[in-house]
Design a protein that fits this description.
alpha/beta; 2-enoyl-CoA Hydratase, Chain A, domain 1; Lyase 2-enoyl-coa Hydratase, Chain  A, domain 2; six-stranded mixed β-sheet; four-stranded mixed β-sheet
């Protein structure tokens, strides 16, 4: 067993990197790791010094999903925790990722399965290693979708492909994921974390308030009626237009110089 914490937190260039650190168990999710991840995501969301977030995994996997050894042990002990983890852990984690007012990038360094894959779908962008695979194997253990996959996955790749992944539980390779729009970019295995950090650092230097408003508008538009989306666009555009970053960008455009963004 690793002597290091199950979740590593690193800050650089305005980017907070959260690394799931149970490589011997393919970064599968214990109750403690889920609680640590949720707390770390909430802390990142509220920390003004953090302007972008990267989520990745240690070793050969991104995240294998629920730790089934812990899950089975709790079920056999008649512990109610396994049946409460969706509402206690998974739902709040997804809500925090999607609602975070700054970009969140998944650096998918290997297998992403179950809730682990769903975490990646909830992120704003996904950089995948060549060896990465995505697997929705809920049906194989007699379960249905959780961690927001029933909402995020069809919006990424379409209803039909999402249903196929859920029912047939066949893995999707990184190149297949790229071809169907599931991931943003595929890079060499040894470049996935650095590539995600480079992208996150570039965004961290950008108009992060505008990014937050874009996330809010797209989230509303994906679920609501056109009239609702138009109302959110009107409000968020007015809020973004009142920022110093917007004024700076316009001034820089007119002066033909590179803008300097502060996130305000």
């Amino acid at each position: 067993m690793s002597a290091l914490p199950a979740l590593l937190i690193d800050d650089a260039d305005g980017v907070r990197t959260l690394t799931l650190n149970r490589p011997e168990a393919f970064n599968s999710l214990t109750s403690q790791l889920k609680e640590d991840l949720l707390a770390a995501l909430r802390a990142a969301a509220s920390d003004a010094a953090v302007r972008a977030v990267v989520i990745t995994g240690a070793g050969r996997a991104f995240c294998a999903g629920q730790d089934l050894k812990e899950h089975v042990a709790l079920l056999r002990a008649n512990d109610p925790a396994p049946l409460q983890t969706v509402t206690s852990h998974y739902n709040p984690i997804i809500a925090t990722i999607t609602g975070m007012p700054k970009p969140v990038i998944a650096a998918v360094n290997g297998m992403a399965a179950g809730a682990g894959a769903s975490f990646a779908y909830a992120c704003d962008l996904r950089i995948a290693a060549t060896s990465a695979k995505f697997l929705m194997a809920f049906a194989n253990v007699g379960l249905t979708a959780d961690s927001g996959a029933s909402w995020t996955l069809p919006r990424l790749i379409g209803y039909g492909r999402a249903m196929e992944m859920m029912l047939l539980a066949a893995p999707v390779t990184a190149e297949q994921a790229l071809s169907i729009g599931m991931v943003t970019q595929v890079v060499a295995d040894d470049a996935v974390v650095s590539g995600a950090h480079e992208l996150a650092a570039r965004m961290a230097a950008g108009p992060t308030t505008a990014y937050a408003k874009i996330k809010e508008a797209l989230l509303a538009g994906a679920a609501g009626a056109l009239a609702d989306a138009l109302a959110v666009e009107a409000r968020t555009q007015a809020e973004a237009g009142a920022t110093t970053d917007h004024t700076e960008a316009v001034d820089a455009f007119v002066a033909k110089r590179t803008p300097s963004f502060t996130g305000r």
